[in-house]
Automatic annotation (TrEMBL):
Residues 123-269 form the Rod shape-determining protein MreC beta-barrel core domain. This is Cell shape-determining protein MreC. It comes from the Bacteria. Signal peptide: none annotated. The lineage of its organism: Bacteria, Pseudomonadati, Pseudomonadota, Gammaproteobacteria, Alteromonadales. Transmembrane segments: none annotated. It comes from Pseudoalteromonas aurantia. Keywords: Cell shape, Coiled coil.
Length: 280
């Protein structure tokens, strides 16, 4: 029996069949619900494998923690106490600012914003190449998460949820070439958009006029536009500016504040968090 891709079939016919099948799959995935259901089913099927692949790391992590000496634990305890004291001072300031903010809102007649809802997630695997920066986490539809929810870590913005399965989901990192984040410059509140360029430690500001007031060292935070990321979360720091007048726009690059190559635990912001300014 002659197979479709047997030796009797010409290379040109093989290529034609492959291209036609690829086009049909692309259109089927784009314009039908079958593609989404198929991806969700695949996520459900491979979820046990992802958890199983994560077992060696967990065992190694437990073993490494058991090797800590008493002096190391004492030093860590001292460091944590110092950090707690600093955070307590910051919480006092936040309480004052929160009260002041409420008074200003009362004067303006503005409605109170909703509180953040958060969900902790763990990274199970990393899928990173020049064309796709994504990680798989251990949260899915059974945890109440949905696509496009914002994801952060303890330092700043990481990305947003995509391809949500039953027990696992993919997080599209903000350094992915398809991802764009509305931001503002913390120093002067100028709004712009930052895009991924396929490099885990570099981002690019899009369409920056030569006259835009941006400087090296400027901190970029989420602007709240677009309805995905709440306002005020740290995103990146400007590291390089090229104002070549021969080009229509200045080239401005920034470095993510979150260490995307080391993320382990993430925070998924709930839908109600999309309308808040503070971290509570």
């Amino acid at each position: 029996m002659n197979l479709l891709f047997g030796r009797t079939i010409s290379l040109q016919l093989r290529l034609t069949v492959a291209v036609v099948l690829s086009v049909l799959l692309i259109f089927g995935d784009r314009y039908t619900q079958g593609g989404t259901l198929f991806r969700t089913s695949l996520h459900t099927l491979v979820s046990p494998l992802l958890y199983f692949a994560n077992v060696p790391y967990e065992m190694f992590d437990i073993g490494a923690k058991s090797l800590h000496t008493r002096d190391q634990l004492r030093q860590e305890n001292y460091t944590l106490k110092e950090k707690q004291l600093l955070q307590s001072e910051q919480l006092q300031q936040l309480a004052f600012l929160k009260n002041e903010n409420q008074e200003l809102r009362a004067l303006l007649g503005a409605s109170a914003r909703q509180n953040n809802t958060r969900l902790i997630a763990q990274v199970l695997s990393v899928h990173s190449n020049p064309y796709s920066h994504q990680v798989v986490i251990n949260r899915g539809t059974i945890d109440g998460v949905t696509e496009s929810q914002a994801v952060i870590d303890e330092m700043g913005v990481v990305g947003q949820l995509t391809q949500v399965g039953t027990t696992t989901s993919r997080v599209l990192l903000m350094t992915d070439i398809t991802h764009a984040t509305p931001v503002r410059i913390l120093r002067n509140d100028v709004r712009t958009v930052i895009e991924g360029i396929g490099k885990i430690n570099r981002l690019k500001l899009s369409h920056v006029p030569h006259s835009l007031d941006v400087r090296i060292g400027d901190v970029l935070v989420t602007s709240g536009l677009g309805g995905i990321f709440p306002e005020g979360y740290p995103v990146a720091v400007v590291t390089n500016i090229n104002r070549d007048e021969g080009l229509p726009f200045a080239k401005v690059y920034a470095e993510p504040i979150a260490q995307l190559d080391r993320i382990r635990l993430l925070v998924i912001l709930g839908k109600s968090a999309q309308e808040t300014l503070s971290h509570d």
